[in-house]
Amino acid sequence: MEQILTAEEMLFMSGNDAEPNCDKQPSFDWPAQESELQYCSLTSRGQINSHAASATSVHPLVPLLLHSDRHLPLRSPYSQPISEPVARQADPPSWTRPCYHGNSVSRQPVKKPLNAFMLYMKETRHQVLQEGREKESSAINRILGRRWHALPRSEQSRFYDLAQKERLLHMQLYPGWSARDNYGKRKRKQLAGSSSRNTTNNLKHLDERFVTLGLK
DNA sequence: CTGCCTTTGAAGATG
DNA sequence: CATCTTCAAAGGCAG
C-alpha cells in the first residue's frame, strides 16, 4: 500500500496525545544520569538497539517533535511530504542511493537533524535580534555560544533531550540515511587553511571561556 | 549570485 | 582509538 504521508497527517494518525507513550523515556537530569547521553546506542544506518524503533506505524515521538518543531521553515524536511511510510523500508535498501524527500519535481536532499545547540539557537535567536545589538548571524551565534555555556545544565538537558528525539524521528522518517550523503556539498576551498583556522578558532574559544570564567 | 563568517554537536573520514 | 573534517541554521556582508 503505497502511501504519501505528510508530517501533519502523521500527527493526526497518532491521535491527540501530546505525550509520547514510550515506556522508558530517557531522562537527562544532570549530573546523575549524564552517562545516559549516549543516546540509546543509535547507529547511522537507521538501526537502533533499543525499543524505540519497534513501532509498526508511527513513532510516538512524531507528534511531540512536530509540535516542538514550530520554528522549522515550511521547506523543512519535516514539513515536506514523505514518500515512504514511516518505519517500513522499501526495497532496495535506501542506503544504496542518495536519500531525497519531496515529490519528483522538487527533490531536496535530506538534511542532518539539528543538534542540541542548533535547537537552542532556533529558539533563542529572536531574543538576541530583539535586543537589537547585533544583526549579523555570525555575531549572534557568538553570543548564543556564550549563552549556551552559561545555560544551566537542567536547561541544556532540555535541548539534548529534544535533539535525541529529533534524531530518532529523523531515523524513522529516513531509514538508512547517512550524513555522508550530504558530504561535499560545500566547496572544500578552505582545505588549505583549515587546520590553522581551526587552531585559531580553538584558541579564540578558549580565550572567550577564560573571559567568561573571569580568568582573564 | 555565491560563499564566508560564527557557534556547538553529531557523525563520517582519516591516520 | 584519537583526531580531524563536514554539515546542520541564520542572514548580513564582501567579492
TrEMBL record:
Keywords: Activator, DNA-binding, Nucleus, Transcription, Transcription regulation, Wnt signaling pathway. Gene3D superfamilies: High mobility group box domain (1.10.30.10). The keyword Nucleus applies. InterPro entries: HMG_box_dom, HMG_box_dom_sf, TCF/LEF. SMART domains: HMG. Residues 110-178 bind DNA. One of its GO terms (biological process) is canonical Wnt signaling pathway. GO terms for molecular function: DNA-binding transcription factor activity, RNA polymerase II-specific; RNA polymerase II cis-regulatory region sequence-specific DNA binding. Residues 110-178 form the HMG box domain. It is found in: Nucleus. CDD domains: HMG-box_TCF7-like. GO terms for cellular component: beta-catenin-TCF complex; chromatin. Belongs to the TCF/LEF family. This is Transcription factor 7-like 1-A.
